[in-house]
Amino acid sequence: MRFPHPGLIDFHLACRVFDGIATGTSERLEAVQTSHATDLVIREFVEQDPASEATLSRWMRSGATDVLRVNAAGILAKTATPETADLVIAALRADEAMRVLYLTAVASRVLALPWTLATQLAQGSGAVGSDAVLKLAEELRNPRDAAARWCSALLLHRAGAAGREPVKAAVAEALRAESAPENLRTMAGLLAGADPITTTLERPR
């Protein structure tokens, strides 16, 4: 007996979830937090459908559950539009419940942590070791998820690791490649010891 390839499972799940997004039905997207891989597939559909992107933006800001909001944010964060990335990061700063879920997902995926330990880290009660710092620094370069880059910066800030050489090198590289203004400001602020939650982009008056 052969089990389906994980990528095939992600594709079929993504198709089902996107059908709900396209019709404005949120039940599938608020049932459980989606994976990074599934979000990447859904993003490919969303980028071809502006109406679906608008629906996700609405759910991210005012969805009835934190799972719906974080799933919408997770898909939008993987699009290639800097303006959309900025909106996601702004939402993460403002919505603590959604932020904890996103941080948990990033910590679990990047650091290979069980969900319970990743949640503790997301809530600020876990420790970040040297190996974890290196992995989070590498995530600052992740070109496929603007919010994951922001979450990694936040976890590094909380760990007091911004001054370490691998982190400074990763930030310098990220600053050259980053397209989202909010992340550019976050990366620069990280080196100065600024909290990514309160380091917001200054808007022109």
Structure description:
It is a single chain. Helix content is 66%, strand content 0%. The chain has helices spanning 6-22, 36-46, 50-62, 66-76, 82-94, 96-111, 115-122, 130-139, 146-158, 165-177, 181-191. The model is unreliable at 1-6 (pLDDT under 50). The longest helix is centred in the N-terminal third of the chain and has 17 residues, at 6-22. It has 2 domains: 7-76, no CATH class; 95-198, no CATH class. It contains 11 helices and no strands.
What are the main properties of this structure?
0% strand, single chain, disordered N terminus, 11 helices, 205 residues
Topology of helices and strands:
Blueprint: H1 6-22, H2 36-46, H3 50-62, H4 66-76, H5 82-94, H6 96-111, H7 115-122, H8 130-139, H9 146-158, H10 165-177, H11 181-191
Helix pairs in contact: 1-2, 2-4, 3-4, 4-6, 5-6, 6-7, 6-9, 8-9, 8-10, 9-11, 10-11
Protein name: HEAT repeat domain-containing protein
Q: Roughly what is the average pLDDT, rounded to an integer?
A: 90
- Overall outline: globular
Distance between the termini: 64 Å
Strand content: under 5%
| Total helical elements | 11
What is the radius of gyration? 17 Å
* Class based on secondary structure composition and strand pairing: mainly alpha
Could you name the ranges where pLDDT drops below 50 across 5 or more consecutive residues? 1-6
How many separate structural domains? 2
Helix-residue proportion:
55-70%
Q: Could you give the order of the helices and strands?
A: HHHHHHHHHHH
Q: What's the main sheet like? A: none
By DSSP, the count of extended strands is: 0
